[in-house]
Amino acid sequence: MVPEQRTAYGGVDADRGHDPTRRPELRAYFDATGARFRDQLTALVTAMGSTDPARHALSLVAWADGLMFSCVAGSFGAQVPSRGEVRAGLRELLDGMLGSCKHEVGPGKLIHDAYMTTQRSEPAPNADERTMLEGWLDYHRQTLAWKCEGLTDAQLRTASVEPSRLSLMGLVRHMAEVERSWFRRVLADEDAGPIYYSDEDPDGEFHLTEADTWAEAYATWQAEIEAARPHAARFGLDDISEGRHRRTGERFNLRWIYTHMIEEYARHNGHADLVRERIDGATGD
Fold this sequence. Notes:
Blueprint: H1 24-47, H2 53-73, H3 83-98, H4 107-114, H5 129-147, H6 153-157, H7 168-187, H8 214-233, H9 254-280
């Protein structure tokens, strides 16, 4: 029996009648997925006013391929571009290709929708009460993350709706404080002091400088969310908190805390809608 001949990259030699992938079903899957991706890119640049959408879509694919190769090959060294830098580069590429094209939908929204990576899911309509409350809380947490996607640190620090000092990064830092307060201090009675504010600066989470980064704010917020989950898991919805509110001295059951957290996120996600739209025109529920 003649042994299979391998190519340099490990596949079977196509000249000997073998499929190079050895998995024809994978080739069909990749071809179909690639076609859908190209169709989406073509629709994107068409909506943005491209006069040559097929060529522009191919340019986007080539740009993405080059970026991935550079990351894998180590061309960037230790400084792999951040998500914000990648999206800023994409926006520059689109601006260069499309120039002064007129389009009804702003490029900010199109890029935001096309490259959204945060996945949101609503709880089932027939879920039990606890699953419903936890599901809607997670949905609103995910919505705030979604509103911040695709922006640079400078944009995330921008208070775009004057005279308000609200910014997307400030809202994320604020919600880190809110998660910490209700789940760690009130519910679990932890001695967990404030992160960003103080008695001297009670709104410190919203007072940003160029030294404040999205990476730090996001990591802090996510750490507080993950700390909240095991604390909440110890309580039933009717169970009363082990700690008290620092100003009123009241105790709260978990149901009240969950409901209040949903209200808090929903309110600030409305603020985030306006702040984001003023930055780059991106909208969405």
